[in-house]
Amino acid sequence: MLQHTLRDLRDKVEVMHFDALAKKYRMSRAFNEKDQSFSARFLVHLEKTKQEFATLRPLTARPLVGYPIATEEIRCGLPNRMPTLELAYAEAETIALEAAALGRLTPEQAQVLRTFFADLEKNALSVYQAGRMVASHSYDRTEIAKFWKGECDWFAAQLQILDTFETILAEVGAELDLKPPRQTLQDILEACFAHHEIHA
Amino acid sequence: MPSLATEEFEELFKLYVRANCESDIPPKEARKLQEDFARQLQDIWEADPGPFPFTSDNFRRLIVDRCLERLDPRRRRHRF
Questions:
Q1: Chain B neighbours among A 72-131 (CB < 8 Å)?
Q2: How many separate domains does chain A show?
Q3: What are all long-range contacts of A46-52, with beta carbons under 8 Å and residues at least 24 apart?
Q4: What ipTM score was computed for the predicted complex, to two decimals?
């Protein structure tokens, strides 16, 4: 009896806690630095990663769809375990543009780009796993559908970035195999779309 | 609503959890599980479709809501 009561109490606290977090997430409000629960850390982790991606500018200056993130949301003090792609993107972009201008790519530059695309792929997989974690903490079907719709838009934007790189590098004649990251992003996009369809 | 045996729902529930909630399921595997879930739902629906104007989409939503209800800690207490 006592065990059930305790479990009920724990469940109630867990739900209330997540509801509060989800509200903050939806309303783009600041996370309290004291919110260090597992869900909170994952939400912040996910948002921080998204923010890093959102700062990336596609070469064609196409606007990125996805999440406008307030800087307050990442003031959780959580150490970022994701590879930082912002600088890598700037470097990759410079290399691609330079290669396009000169019509060639040095082996060193090609290696930098290979590393960048591998990180892009790794990061996308981490974001997908974090998304599953976030969605599994909600019990409202329409809310989950909305969440996955947002993820679809975000991963579609990542594919657009890859497309842009591919077009430029193809013009240079660079032999970089972009099939694996493209396949991964497409697999993720399809999975996100299906998550959305199941819950819509 | 089509008649759904307890075992059938259990199977659907397990599939739903693996496809959508469990961690470390890669996207490709998730996609396969999602397809299995959708196919099972469709098979059940086609074997015993609900009365008009009930649709297969209504049925899917109903089952997903039942899965979420079962996962929801707020409602776990009602099972006791």
A1: 125, 128-129
A2: 1
A3: A46/A127, A46/A130, A46/A131, A46/A133, A46/A134, A47/A73, A47/A74, A48/A74, A48/A78, A48/A80, A48/A82, A49/A82, A49/A123, A49/A126, A49/A127, A49/A130, A50/A127, A50/A154, A52/A82, A52/A84, A52/A85, A52/A86, A52/A123
A4: 0.91
